[in-house]
Amino acid sequence: MLRYTLMRLGIFVGCFVVVWALVYSGVAPRGLGSSNGMWVIFLALVVSAPISFVVLRKERDRASAQIAPHLDQRINRVKSNLAANSSVEDEADDEARKQSETASGQAQAS
User: Fold this and answer.
1) Which tens digits make up the pLDDT trace of 42-101?
2) Which residues contact 45 (CB under 8 A, 6 or more apart)?
3) Do residues 40 and 12 lie in contact, with contact meaning Cβ atoms separated by under 8 Å?
4) CA–CA distance from 26 to each of 48, 72, 103 (Å)?
5) Helices (H) and strands (E) in the chain, counts
6) Is the pTM of the predicted complex or chain greater than 0.90?
7) Residue 58: CA count within 13 A, CB half-sphere
8) How far apart are CA 104 and CA 110, in angstroms?
9) Would the pLDDT of 109 be above 70?
10) Greatest CA span in the chain, whole angstroms?
């Protein structure tokens, strides 16, 4: 995962340098007023995203293969906790219903 992140960051930095050079040489448009730095960052993000998507496909698959088993374990644990909580709530509802029926039956008998 760290390798993928560093590769992605490297692609962004490379795109940032290229976009910065294009903007300051006048090939690409400058940002309005003092927004030029944000404009260069935005352009670098827009350019680096599809490059990373294509170039880092194998590395992204490796990273997701490492993460998937951990996510499956976490999802199963959350599901079992929800099922346990649901059964506890159902038991409490049933008990409250029985108590209210008993109390209403005793009130009618009086």
Assistant:
1) 999 999 999 999 999 998 888 888 887 777 788 888 888 887 777 767 777 778 788 877
2) 12
3) no
4) 20, 50, 84
5) 3, 0
6) no
7) 1
8) 10
9) no
10) 95
